[in-house]
Amino acid sequence: MFFNIQPRTSDAVAALQVSPILGVALVEFANGYSYEYTGVSRRAIANLMLNPNMSLGFWVNQNCINTKRTACLNLV
Prior knowledge:
With 76 residues, this protein is α+β, with helices and mostly antiparallel strands. It contains 2 helices and 5 strands; from the N terminus they run E-E-E-E-H-H-E. A 5-stranded antiparallel β-sheet has the order 1-2-3-4-5, with helices on one face. The protein starts with a strand and ends with a strand.
């Protein structure tokens, strides 16, 4: 089950969906590219869902892109 994260001020991230059970994040960037990140920290996902002031771009960088635990799949 995926949850849509409400849009927040972000120049990089256009849309974000997360699954706290699967540890998956679906990220659509402002440039039109979309990626699926697996192995995302479930704790980080829960923190994002509970903190409406967190920057989406910051969260994606810290928990999806700049970590060794995640795998990335380019979605067409």
